[in-house]
Amino acid sequence: MQAPTPAPAVTPRVRDIREARSAAPAPSRTAAPSPSRTLAAAPLPAVTVTGALRAVEALLLGAGQRTARRNAWTSVLEDRRRAQDRVEAQHVLEAARERGPRAT
After folding, report:
1. Contact predicate 45/36, CB 8 Å
2. By 3-state DSSP, what share of the chain in percent is helix, strand and coil, each rounded to 5?
3. How far apart are CA 19 and CA 22, in angstroms?
4. At what angle do helices 63-99 and 49-60 cross, to 10 degrees?
5. Are 44 and 36 in contact, with CB atoms under 8 Å apart?
6. pLDDT digits (tens, 9 = 90+) for 9-42
7. What's the predicted TM-score (pTM) here?
């Protein structure tokens, strides 16, 4: 018959870990209040059509496409502004021509 295998020697590090575990207090059985119960809920920001469209845009388009689309839209708005300025300038010139030259 074989002799029983001796238990492996316990190193000082293993002994320190075992002692620390046995000296630790037992976990509490009472549940701590969850953070959601102790914190007041912050009001949600108002959802706007612009914000919703930007969120959809962020999901569907990559960063480069998003930038290109915004640059294109900015160009369209600038073109519209310049066209409006041309129309106003034309009205001013027509009004000045209708008055005729002033006698000096």
Report:
1. no
2. 60, 0, 40
3. 5
4. 130
5. no
6. 667 776 777 777 776 666 566 655 555 555 566 7
7. 0.40
